[in-house]
Every structure is written in C-alpha cells, then in structure tokens.
C-alpha cells in the first residue's frame, strides 16, 4: 500500500548540511526520505533476546512508495545524476536485489530511464517480485544466467546507450562515497535524538551488511557527531566483495569527499565489531537461527523481515553475545513492496538536484 506523498514542508531539515555547509556545491540530493525515520522500542523482543534495551531504527519506513536503506543512497546518486544532465541510470545486483528495485522506483520518479544488470542468486521472495516489478516500472533488464556472463553483461549495461547516451552508473550496493552521504544523515538523526533526550544513550548499532556502504556511513556519521556507539556490522555477502578493511576505506573516501566540500573537523572512527559467522549457508539462504529470529519478530514486533539480510542478522541475538546491552537495530528492509501504478515521474523545483 502506498500513502500519498508527504508535503515536503513537513520534513525535518537535513542535518548533514549543518555539519558541512559547503555540501550543496558538491551534490544536491533529491527529497525522497521522510526525515527523520522513526525509532521504536521493541521491548518484548528485547526481553526475549535478553538485551538491556532494543530499539529499531525504522528505515523500513524511509519512504511511502518503497522504503529501506537504499532510498537514502539514491537521494544523493539521483541528485548527482540529474545535476550532471544524465537522462538514464544503470545499476547491478543479484536477481532479488533491493538496490535494483529501489533504482527502478526512484529513477522512474526522477524522470530517468533505468537499466539493471541482474546476476544469479538462489530464489528468495524478492527474486519473484523483481521479475514482475522491474519491467512494470519500465526498467530495462539485462539478465545473466551464469556468473561467467557477468563481465560482458556489465560492459553492455554500463556503457551501452540509454536515451541516446551512456547512463549514470550507480555501483552495486551503493558502495560509493556519493551514496554513503545519505547514510550519514541517518546516523545524525540518531545523534540528534539522543542529544535532545528523545532517545537514551545506546551501546551498539547492529546493521545487516552487504557491500558495507551502510555500515561505513553509520560509522562515519556517528564519528562526525561525536557519538560513542559501537557499529556491529553483520556480514551477509561473500568476503570477496566486503570486509572491515573495505568498510574503513569507504568511510575514509567519504570523509575525503566531505573535506572537498570544506568540512575541516577532525574525525576518528569509533569502535567497529565485524561479524562473519552469521552468513551461512550462503547468500540468500536461511539457517536455523535466522528462521527462529524471523518467528520471534513475527510474534513480538511490528516490522517484517526478509531472508537475505534482516532475519540472518537478527539471528545474532539468539546467541546472547550482546546480552544486557542497549541495542539499536538498523532496519534496512522496506516495510512495503512498491506499487508500479503509484510510481509516476515527478518534476518541479523541489527536486533539489534538478537542473534549472
Ligand atoms: C542493501 C541491503 C543491505 C546491505 O547494505 P550494504 O550497504 O550493501 O552493506 C542490508 N539490508 C537490506 C535489506 C538491503 O537491501
């Protein structure tokens, strides 16, 4: 179900430009996220999992058309693409990718042509959904049946013309400083809520981790706000494409971008706990602990889970490693599936990144 778009005037002002006044000169984001996303306490779930407290950062509610973590990244990518005069965008991901679906939704809304390269993955609910929704959203899909077809497919996808020119490239998982900028805003929302006394101090922020763009943005955002929280990154994709070193590097590259925009404050990343042991038996495949976690959430909380990231990350709490700690879970998975009929191109002056 999609709700009518919120009047833009009701959105809270962005916090990142208050830290980095020169940011607008570098990239002006589109207004896609209903800021700030809520934080709700999941008391019954926290009790079952023996946590001190448990809150959920409701990035599942980041936008009424289609939420989840990728909307924050796309605010910046699409603003950047439009400012550069792009007429189309291209991205890539596994068949069930949320990033690909989010790009189809918000690229279309921004009036851009969209294309995606899809790579093989085990069947999850989202693969069936994407099969149906991507064409309905007007996305051009290049599907690789085998991994060996990916390099050639990528060349075609990335450099083949779309609307008469090469499309703007959005890397898989939004693993790029431009996309990470959007995640920083989410971390700053938490810091502001704690400063304002609306949220008690927290010990750990637990984040489902793929390419680690989200975890990197959170670590950087908390560091910029001077908020001492530990980022617990729970890996769900093969180590080949992610890792704590890549996470720190992406945070540093994003900080370098902010330095270009004139941000001068010294920044030291806080504590990071990187966990590898919950990814089994493979990308997109559940395990006994994740099935148990999904049942606990269905019984005791009001958000939905999916197999690839959220349930497998929450499996961590079955193991009592964070017992007694005050935990904020970063809910990356959209609360709704998009309705293609509700996704219409929108143009106008409030599209901050649109060329004049
Ligand atoms: C993309 C995604 C992630 C992983 O985010 P990264 O920034 O690539 O680490 C986690 N959860 C969900 C639901 C996602 O769609």
From TrEMBL:
InterPro entries: ACCD_DCysDesulf, TrpB-like_PALP, TrpB-like_PALP_sf
Residue ranges annotated for the Tryptophan synthase beta chain-like PALP domain, each copy included: 31-331
Organism: Caenimonas terrae
Family: Belongs to the ACC deaminase/D-cysteine desulfhydrase family.
Entry keywords, A to Z: Pyridoxal phosphate
Name used for this protein in its record: 1-aminocyclopropane-1-carboxylate deaminase/D-cysteine desulfhydrase
PANTHER family: 1-AMINOCYCLOPROPANE-1-CARBOXYLATE DEAMINASE-RELATED
Domain of life: Bacteria
Database matches in SUPFAM superfamilies: Tryptophan synthase beta subunit-like PLP-dependent enzymes
The protein's required cofactors: pyridoxal 5'-phosphate
A UniProt-annotated Pfam family: PALP
């Amino acid at each position: 179900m999609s709700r009518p778009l919120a009047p833009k005037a009701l959105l809270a002002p962005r916090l990142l430009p208050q830290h980095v006044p020169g940011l607008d000169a570098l990239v002006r984001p589109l207004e896609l996220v209903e800021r700030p996303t809520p934080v709700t306490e999941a008391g019954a779930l926290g009790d079952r999992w023996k946590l001190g407290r448990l809150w959920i950062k409701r990035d599942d509610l980041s936008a009424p058309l289609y939420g989840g973590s990728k909307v924050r990244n796309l605010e910046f990518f699409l603003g950047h693409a439009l400012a550069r005069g792009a007429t189309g965008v291209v991205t890539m991901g596994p068949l069930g990718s949320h990033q690909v679906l989010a790009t189809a939704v918000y690229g279309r809304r921004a009036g851009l042509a969209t294309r995606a390269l899809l790579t093989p993955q085990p069947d999850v609910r989202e693969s069936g959904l994407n099969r149906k929704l991507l064409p309905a959203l007007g996305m051009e899909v290049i599907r690789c049946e085998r991994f060996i077809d990916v390099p050639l497919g990528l060349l075609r996808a990335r450099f083949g013309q779309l609307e008469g020119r090469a499309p703007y490239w959005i890397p898989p998982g939004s693993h790029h400083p431009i996309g990470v900028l959007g995640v920083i805003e989410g971390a700053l929302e938490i810091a502001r809520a704690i400063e304002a006394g609306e949220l008690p101090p927290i010990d750990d922020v637990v984040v489902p981790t793929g390419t680690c763009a989200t975890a990197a943005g959170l670590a950087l955002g908390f560091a910029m706000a001077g908020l001492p929280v530990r980022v617990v990154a729970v890996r769900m994709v093969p180590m080949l494409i992610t890792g704590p070193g890549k996470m720190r590097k992406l945070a540093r590259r994003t900080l370098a971008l902010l330095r270009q925009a004139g941000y001068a404050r010294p920044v030291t990343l806080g504590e990071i706990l990187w966990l590898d042991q919950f990814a089994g038996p493979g990308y997109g495949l559940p395990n006994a602990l994740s099935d148990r976690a999904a049942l606990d959430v269905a019984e005791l909380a009001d958000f939905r889970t999916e197999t690839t990231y959220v349930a497998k990350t929450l499996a961590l709490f079955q193991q009592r490693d964070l017992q007694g700690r005050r935990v904020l879970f970063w809910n990356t998975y959209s609360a709704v599936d998009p309705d293609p009929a509700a996704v219409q191109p929108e143009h106008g002056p409030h599209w901050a990144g649109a060329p004049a």
